[in-house]
Amino acid sequence: MIRTQTEEEWAQYVANYEFANAYQPTCFADPYSDRRRVIVTGFGRFLENTENATGRMVSHLVPGLEYPETVRPPAGEVDDPAAQTRVVQSTIELPDGPVDVCGMILPVFWDVAAILVLKEIEAFQPDFVLMNGIAGSRQPMWIELGSVNEAVSLPDGSGTLAPVESGSKLIPEAPEEDRARGLLLSWTEVRTRVEARLADLSPERDAEGVAFGDLLQGVRFQTFPRSSNTYLCNNTTYAVNYLLDHPGQTYRLLEPSDPREGGPVGLDIGLTTDLSSSPRVFVHWASTISGEHLDRGAALMREIIAAQLGAIEAPTRGDPAMADADL
Fold it and tell me: Is residue 2 part of a domain?
């Protein structure tokens, strides 16, 4: 539930709701094609920070996808989610053949990002969903093993909207046994291939002489649930993960704490197609990847996709017991 007590909060909430409600998918499954389909997401601007490495890397991966160049509006004005959203359907070449890709750069807004991804999933029916976000400035790639039905009460990229309280549920209808929910991936095969590709790319340097491996320092399986991962990345991950596993059911997102007469009361969304067997994962990246290193990050995204689509090992649920002990 989103806090909407003040006029400023309500105005931003209505803008977010209207955009998410009216949003129509860009990507569609071609019934006459045997190409595999993948959704790849990154985020755009966060508050006054115009650069987001994940949105930039996705734009380097997906032909025709342009990173949205926006600036934060003056205090008290609505931060337009539409201006921060870009979605393109394209085709990329992998070693095993071409793959159709729905590339998404998402606004860093509570529930809005999740709704956009879910609408594209409904239309595109992907074989794999790869979601991405930033964490520390220099760190290992964190392959998230799972997600948690919990939100921290911190403002989103608008600087205005936040959940009503920390610890509140992202999906109120989800039972307590689903509070922590593993993601779905061929974990060992994906990690092995990504580690090998990163080893090749790590010595390469940018124009300032910084090696890629100094920014992205290895690959780790990150545990769940954990209190440091209850923000927007987890918001998107849990909602997508949960709804993929519950086709045919409808859940309410973007619910306001203080609805007003005649105004929106939330957005009901669900998936009609059973895609519960489709792998899905969230990856956290070093936030300082930039310049020439964006292509190297995109190459690792490509490797994740190729590894999962070509995996012999069946996807399994992430388990906290798989997490690396040094995190």
Answer: no
Low-confidence residues in the chain, pLDDT < 50: none
Nearest to 151 by CA among 174, 131, 183, 128: 174
DSSP 68: P
Token representation of residue 313: 């090992």
266 burial via Cβ count (<10 Å: 0-12, 13-18, 19+): middle
| d(C-alpha 26, C-alpha 195), whole Å | 33
What total number of domains does the chain contain?
A: 1
Query: Which one-letter amino acid corresponds to residue 21?
Result: N
CATH number of the CATH domain containing 180: 3.40.630.20
The parent domain of residue 166 ranges over 7-322
pTM of the model: 0.97
| pLDDT of amino acid 128 | 99
User: What pLDDT was estimated at residue 327?
Assistant: 80
User: Measured in whole angstroms, how far is the alpha carbon of residue 317 from the centre of its chain?
Assistant: 18
For residue 13, what is the DSSP state?
Answer: H
**CA angle 202–214–292, rounded 5-degree value:** 65
Across the chain, how many H-helices and E-strands are there?
7, 13
In a domain, 1, yes or no: no
Within 8 A by CB and 6+ apart from 163, the residues are 1, 2, 3, 110, 151, 152, 153
Instruction: Give a yes or no: residue 88 inside a domain.
Output: yes
Which are the contacts of 209, defined by CB distance < 8 A and separation ≥ 6? Answer: none
The reported pLDDT for the residue numbered 249 is 98
State the DSSP string of 160-193.
S--BSSTTB-SSTTS-GGGSEEE-EE-HHHHHHH
257-280 pLDDT, tens digit per residue, is 999 999 999 999 999 999 999 999
What are the pLDDT digits (tens) for 48-104?
Answer: 788 999 999 999 999 999 999 999 999 899 999 999 999 999 999 999 999 999 999
Q: In the prediction, which pLDDT does 150 show?
A: 97
162 belongs to a structural domain? yes
